[in-house]
Amino acid sequence: MAASRKTALALAFFCFLCCNAFLPTSASSDSFLQCLSSMMPSGLVFQQSSSSFVSVLQSSVQNPKFVTNTTVRPLCIITASDVSHVQAAVRCGRWNGVRLRMRSGGHDYEGLSYRSVQPEVFAVLDLAKLRGVHVIPGEDSAWVDAGTTLGELYYAVGTTNPGFLFPGGACATVGVSGFISGGGIGLMMRKYGVGGDNVVDAKIVNANGDVLDRAGMGEDLFWAIRGGGGESFGVVVAWRVKLSKVPPTVTVVNTIKTLEQGAADVLAKWETIILQPAFVPDLTVRVVLQVRQAFFQTLFLGGCSDLVTTLHNVFPELGVTAADCNEMSWLRAMTFIYFGRTDVPAEALLNRTNNLGNYFKSKSDYVRRPVGKATWESLYQQWLSRNGGGQMILEPHGAAVGGANTLTNSPYPHRRGVLYNIQYGSNWCCDANGTNAAAALGWLNGLYGFMQPFVSSNPREAFANYRDLDLGQNVVGQDGVSSFWSGRVWAQRYFMGNYWRLAAVKSMVDPSDYFRNEQSIPPFR
Ligand SMILES: Cc1cc2nc3c(=O)[nH]c(=O)nc-3n(C[C@H](O)[C@H](O)[C@H](O)COP(=O)(O)OP(=O)(O)OC[C@H]3O[C@@H](n4cnc5c(N)ncnc54)[C@H](O)[C@@H]3O)c2cc1C
Ligand SMILES: *[C@@H]1O[C@H](CO)[C@@H](O)[C@H](O)[C@H]1NC(C)=O
Ligand SMILES: *[C@@H]1O[C@H](CO)[C@@H](O)[C@H](O)[C@H]1NC(C)=O
Ligand SMILES: *[C@@H]1O[C@H](CO)[C@@H](O)[C@H](O)[C@H]1NC(C)=O
């Protein structure tokens, strides 16, 4: 074994010196698998021949679109349960020219954490076993292992450290790692900023297989991993997240307005108040538009009477009264927001079982000036009321998330002047690439075209966490490295001016472009 490791080391050195390009062959696949088996328990590695391969591969997949028989599958899945397994996977991968796709919660909208668009030899490094939250009562931070879900984090904080919160998203099964590394937006960001703004330390395994904390990786890399995309810089194995104080009681309210009840008027008012000081950071009103209605989801970090007073001043059109309030702990509110019911126990946030029923495709936009009542009306008439499976989710920005994007902030660039993010979604059943898929995608693209005059432009901004391969894919040059100019096409829309700094960080930490996928940050050229 010592001899094979020596050979591997020599090979690694050779590769490092004379070539950036990895040309995976079956021979390198074999030595990759041998390398893994010499460095970790064999029960952690699932090859395609294993009877569990398909179930392990699908364990956290959210979109059946990417479990077809034409989906490009990994050579194997490495289910790391210790940081040393992650180091071994990176080292074996680099020595043998096999790339890794890291997977934490598996929610990537294009499935890039477990599939490749083009035929390629790669391995999935699944981190679901590497999970745990280390919370100390009264402390305003907690270490979270990379494979933890938001629901598991909420549960640990809410039960062990009540009085504190982590400002995450609405969906409990989303992985903390993908959420933070793509920015991370949610119902508490107006008060506390995006997910990436709420990290104080991290541990990453770099392209050499070394484990670095914040001091070891330096501030540039620490900045980049908090919103610059998870796939480009290394494998994050743990985050130290900042926890913030929350009152013992918060208030949630769900309100529905149909078109007949003036949904378009209420939306037209909603979009004009977001940046007003009276729309306080403690107050968030998110909206889901579907068919002929607008569903307003309100979270207020305080009690019902303060909420009713605040809404009466700033947004009386919503018509919320004390009778509409649900007062509860922050943990119960996170449960309510995800499940839509007050009778679901908080333990349900721990359920990681995926539901593979829903074929979907999403796109995103940012709005910087109100679109106005007439546009809301035509949107409903021409688009929403014509597709029962389509919806738009509007997430208000402003307040803390709208501050200037200074060096102390994370790379999330959609800040000052942004009113809200739009997520367009289209759901269908049950073909990955048939007539239903074509109809659903045709609708989505038509809606996206319709909205173009009303949303941000030059660039038309998009949210990195709502990954959309229609925006562009990297082209790999003859030197085996993703081209900076091909990356610019899509990355300027996710990262705006921060693309250049992210690419400069990439040049420093992974110039040979080992950590890459179809939308990873290329090195600066
Ligand atoms: C139902 C649903 C609801 C959502 N709601 C929200 C929301 O409210 N707010 C929001 O901001 N986003 C939301 N998203 C988007 C979500 O944040 C992104 O899809 C995110 O990337 C998912 O993280 P994950 O760990 O589950 O995904 P994965 O598919 O595991 O990973 C996503 C990307 O990150 C990389 N990655 C994963 N783990 C690591 C790691 N440890 N180190 C380095 N790179 C890593 C992967 O390689 C991949 O490129 C939602 C998605 C879904 C499907
Ligand atoms: C792929 O799957 C479809 C339906 O699941 C099936 O009809 C088809 O025969 C499969 N193709 C191959 C090449 O296995
Ligand atoms: C866990 O979630 C899955 C998928 O949504 C669901 O089918 C199942 O019933 C849930 N299990 C429990 C115990 O709630
Ligand atoms: C979908 O089907 C079309 C036409 O049959 C084909 O050209 C295309 O490559 C398919 N796409 C995928 C992702 O399979």
Automatic annotation (TrEMBL):
Its cofactor is FAD. One of its GO terms (molecular function) is oxidoreductase activity. Residues 70-246 form the FAD-binding PCMH-type domain. Keywords: FAD, Flavoprotein, Glycoprotein, Signal. Residues 1-29 form the signal peptide. The keyword Amino-acid biosynthesis does not apply. It holds the Pfam family BBE. SUPFAM superfamilies: FAD-binding/transporter-associated domain-like. Belongs to the oxygen-dependent FAD-linked oxidoreductase family. This is FAD-binding PCMH-type domain-containing protein.
